[in-house]
Amino acid sequence: MDIITFTSDFGEQDWFVAAVKGEILKINPRAKIIDISHTLSPFNIRAGAFLLKNVYRNFPEGTVHLAVVDPGVGSKRKPIIVFSENYYFVGPDNGIFSYIYNSKSRVYEIIFKQITSSTFHARDIFGPVSAYLSKGERIEKMGREIKRYIKFEFPKLKKIGKKIYGEVVYIDSFGNLITNIPNSLNLGSFKISQIGKKVLIKDSYSEGKKGEFIGIKGSCGYYEIALNQGSAADLLNAKIGFSITGELT
Amino acid sequence: MDIITFTSDFGEQDWFVAAVKGEILKINPRAKIIDISHTLSPFNIRAGAFLLKNVYRNFPEGTVHLAVVDPGVGSKRKPIIVFSENYYFVGPDNGIFSYIYNSKSRVYEIIFKQITSSTFHARDIFGPVSAYLSKGERIEKMGREIKRYIKFEFPKLKKIGKKIYGEVVYIDSFGNLITNIPNSLNLGSFKISQIGKKVLIKDSYSEGKKGEFIGIKGSCGYYEIALNQGSAADLLNAKIGFSITGELT
Amino acid sequence: MDIITFTSDFGEQDWFVAAVKGEILKINPRAKIIDISHTLSPFNIRAGAFLLKNVYRNFPEGTVHLAVVDPGVGSKRKPIIVFSENYYFVGPDNGIFSYIYNSKSRVYEIIFKQITSSTFHARDIFGPVSAYLSKGERIEKMGREIKRYIKFEFPKLKKIGKKIYGEVVYIDSFGNLITNIPNSLNLGSFKISQIGKKVLIKDSYSEGKKGEFIGIKGSCGYYEIALNQGSAADLLNAKIGFSITGELT
Fold first, then answer.
1. What pLDDT does residue B117 have?
2. Which of A92, B95, C6, C190 is least enclosed, having the fewest CB within 10 Å?
3. How confident is the model at residue C73 (pLDDT cuts 50, 70, 90)?
């Protein structure tokens, strides 16, 4: 397919992202490299996992998703390739692919000789492997299948009567709080201790008054809490893990 | 032409920009997607309109300009396609295309069935429509022409004697103040109340001394006020709409 | 080759980067434009030079490296093309290419007629020249060779006994301090006055304890000083030029 997406915590100021792209283009000059994000929090693998989960299916099948959020670079964590739902994923085995794994996913440890640096695996291993996959190289030529790999569980809901106890799993750059409560549950409102009145569910962001908190069914399949024309995260001082209680209708 | 530019207020941290690009590539794998900016102020449609006005002609004719600064997503504002000067524009009818409209522009309301989300029209409507246009699909297959649409007027100048009363229409990331006074007027200086002496017009940024305010004929066709090696906006605490008085020679 | 990399201090908020890309695509619609960085400090040419030095060879030979960090735009600094090691470099003659020059590099002053703006040479000169080079146009048609150009020296080391006196040449966005001490020297530790104990050399970032300073052989060929899971630059208040003393084993 020639499409490679690229997610990292490298920031956009230095040459790291471009170095990886250049090495990819040396191997596959036809590669089409699409940035997902390079400003992930360096040590927040769960946020990276949630981000990948939300976007990988938006790309054509056959796409290679390169994702390097890798505080353990140089340690003994394995470099891996995952094949799942006709997508390829390349990166470290540290949980970054947790939310894409299913029972049919196949995971391979990368066996790759040309390691020249112990601190820049994206450039020296993950980028080149992604480039070869995008050219149609077979996984089996670059890795051997493994059965044990790191997988975080997606935070679970608790249900007591009409109350659903969930939490914030991602905060987007608008400050919207994305929860782990799926849109398929029929919520009527949220109860958040810092907010005096109930947070009502609306059909769209624009239905809230300026400065009003609203709940909406988010575009990624989970309820979000938003502050119309403002940042809900800032006003509530909410971080990932922040408790959220939904009330079924 | 296969070229699609993409302007939004989505930020670069999350997966939103990439989700739109992925859906475009599903429809047109040959699309060449060029980012213009994704860090527009979410609710500043006029700044987005000015930005588009300044860059759309730098692209080859036939380019599709996708622009989504859309605080009203989910409300009743129409999704539109504009065809003007052999360029296509796709986005919400909220004024974002105000400064590209001329008497020959044609505007179409998008009629598009597959709406799956009420909060992410860029991914579900605007991106796919842009992809089809970039493949050569006819506008008439996706929209119906309309005659009424939202258009802001570009701020007007007032002229009294040798004085031109204008205002700041855009502040760039260097802090330069871009005015609505066209380079075609022959200004000798600016008068700004917070600055004791006249701000003289120079030929280039580098002619100012460090810390000196200068006026120059800007690359986008309007006079700018700059602080050599500094941010004029910060030092003057100037926002969009800030009053500027030019003095004709 | 059709590959053009693009480095600038234009920021990512405005239309400047896209305007250059559009003009490139008008000339060479097949161009593949890869961003290196657009958030360089506007007036830090040495940091830009170090960044280029670290990444240009990661791209295939024939790549055109467009680099515009240009506080002197509009002044008398020359626009130049450099041909070195089968790469092309296009930008201002202000030292930005200092660290790629070698005895075989050839430097050409650009002779280019269509100058329409005195403040946006990237769009009006450097971008178009890069596009023509990427299409295979000969340098000699666009420039004339010159023998005098601006070249900063890379900061030199001082060696006294087992001590190596160096300095910080770049600070990356993680806050790692990149020094001018090459990996080829066999350092056992660093001595930094603000840090009580010796900073030991480790094999990778992840070997340091949280909050511990470590030295490592960096991926760009020089020793780096890092703070595990933190910013060494912030904690030491270190800028480019900060003194670093290495101790040979």
1. 63
2. B95
3. low
Of chain B, the end-to-end C-alpha distance in Å amounts to 46
Residues 6+ positions from C64 with CB-CB distance below 8 Å: C1, C3, C4, C5, C87, C88, C89, C90, C130, C133, C134
Which chain B residues have a beta carbon less than 8 Å from that of C10?
173
Q: What is the pLDDT of residue C117?
A: 63
Give domain limits for chain A: 3-146, 158-248
pLDDT 10s digit of each residue in chain A, 249 long? Answer: 799 999 999 999 999 999 999 999 999 999 999 999 998 877 789 999 999 999 999 999 999 999 999 877 666 789 999 999 999 999 999 999 999 999 999 999 998 766 566 678 899 999 999 999 999 999 999 999 999 999 999 999 999 999 999 999 999 988 999 999 999 999 999 998 888 889 999 987 777 788 899 999 998 999 999 998 889 999 999 999 999 999 998
CATH architecture of B3-146: 3-Layer(aba) Sandwich (3.40)
Residue ranges in chain B whose pLDDT is less than 50: none
Residue A53 at interface with chain B, using a CB cutoff of 8 Å: no
SS3 B138: coil
Cα distances (angstroms) measured from residue C41 to each of B229, C8, C129: 11, 9, 24
Helix segments in chain B, DSSP class H: 16-27, 45-55, 121, 127-134, 232-236
Are B35 and B17 spatial neighbours (Cβ–Cβ below 8 Å)?
A: yes
Triad B101, B105, B109: Cα angle to 5°: 95
In the stretch 13-42 of chain A, residues with CB closer than 8 A to chain B read 32, 34-40
How close, in Å, is residue C127 to chain B by CA atoms?
11
- Whether B11 has its CB under 8 Å from any CB of chain A: the answer is yes
User: Per the CB < 8 Å rule, is C123 touching B205?
Assistant: no
> Which residues in B lie closer than 8 A to residue C120 (C-beta atoms)?
219
**Which residue in A54, A63, A205 is closest to B73 by CB distance?**
A205
Please answer whether residues B47 and C12 qualify as being in contact, where contact means their C-beta atoms are separated by less than 8 angstroms: no
Which superfamily does CATH assign the domain made up of B158-248 to?
Bacterial fluorinating enzyme like (2.40.30.90)
Chain C residues with CB-CB distance to A120 below 8 A: 219
Chains that touch B (3 or more CB pairs under 8 A): A, C
For residue C152, with 0-12 CB atoms within 10 Å meaning exposed, 13-18 middle and 19 or more buried, which class applies? middle
* C119 closest CB neighbour out of B40, B51, B204: B204
Is residue A72 less than 8 Å (CB to CB) from chain C?
Answer: yes
Given a contact cutoff of 8 angstroms between Cβ atoms, the answer to whether B231 and B175 are in contact is yes
Q: Which of A98, A109, A90 is nearest to A20 (CA)?
A: A90
The 3-state DSSP class for residue B129 equals helix
State residue A201 phi and psi, 5-degree precision. -85, 130
Q: Quote the CA–CA distance of A55 and B21 in Å, as a whole number.
A: 10
ipTM value:
0.93
Interface A–C counts its CB contacts (< 8 A) at 88
What lies within 8 Å, CB to CB, of A52 at 6+ separation is A7, A36, A65, A67, A89, A96, A97, A99, A100, B15
Cβ-contact B2, B28 below 8 angstroms: yes
A82 contacts A113 by C-beta, under 8 angstroms: no
Contacts of A207 in chain B (CB under 8 A): 74-75
Please tell me if residue A73 touches chain B, with a CB cutoff of 8 Å: no
Q: Cα B178 from chain centroid?
A: 13
Q: Classify B207 in phi/psi space as left (phi over 0), alpha (psi -120 to 50) or beta.
A: alpha
Q: Would an 8 Å CB–CB cutoff place B3 in contact with chain C?
A: yes
Closest alpha carbon within chain C to B218: C119
